[in-house]
Design a protein that fits this description.
single chain, alpha/beta, 3-stranded antiparallel β-sheet, 9 strands
């Protein structure tokens, strides 16, 4: 495959051998949402912004197939030089990737933050009657009229963005660290306070009846 094997290419002008990895451009979008100003601080996260910085540094320093700093965009809470991860900023980041992507490029996208569900906009398209959503930093409580979380990003929107990038001929590798792992714990042990990483539907104004 393109990513697993270096396919030799011959430069006709000078006969220089280039690997497939050398010929492509690596691009990345790293989203880390740790702070949610419209939610109680108990629903905020600590890891996503840290993850974005660690992954950025790894991609740039990667000796096998490094990313240039100019091609790594970080949209994360409280990260120097990064935009706040609002809905508008995240969607613009995806749109910018689409505009820049070229045939053969390798695109790495990472979303870290809260994920949730809301009543489906079209229940006939969802077996469980729910749409999956990623919570941007500027989300609010459920709108009682539209039955949606303001400024959340729906899975269909992200899917459409990925399709647009792939249509340019780029290979996309996306990681979502935003699952519903309600009982998962990290670094827990005797005498250590456990903290669930999930956000409850009630925190977003979604009642059990909905």
């Amino acid at each position: 495959g393109r990513l697993l094997a270096a396919t030799a290419l011959v430069c006709a002008a000078g006969g220089v051998m280039l690997s497939d990895a050398d010929a492509r451009t690596n691009r990345a979008l790293l989203v880390g949402v740790s702070e949610y100003p419209n939610l109680p601080k108990g629903d905020w996260l600590e890891g996503p912004a840290n993850d974005a910085v660690l992954v950025r540094d790894f991609l740039i320093a990667n000796p096998t197939s490094p990313f240039t700093a100019d091609n790594v965009t970080v949209i994360a809470s409280n990260v120097e030089g990064a935009e706040t991860p609002t809905r508008a900023a995240i969607l613009k980041g995806l749109a910018d990737l689409t505009a820049k992507a070229e045939d053969g490029d390798f695109i790495y996208i990472q979303f870290s933050g809260h994920g949730s569900q809301q009543p489906a906009a079209d229940p006939s398209t969802e077996i469980d009657g729910k749409d999956e959503i990623f919570l941007a930093a500027d989300i609010g409580k459920l709108d009682p009229v539209t039955k949606t979380i303001p400024n959340a990003i729906m899975d269909d929107e992200i899917g459409a963005a990925l399709d647009a990038i792939r249509a340019k001929g780029a290979f996309v590798w996306e990681i979502f660290e935003a699952c519903h792992s309600g009982t998962a714990t990290r670094a827990a042990g005797l005498g250590v306070e456990e903290k669930e990483r999930k956000i409850s539907p009630e925190s977003l104004g979604i009642t059990p009846e909905m």
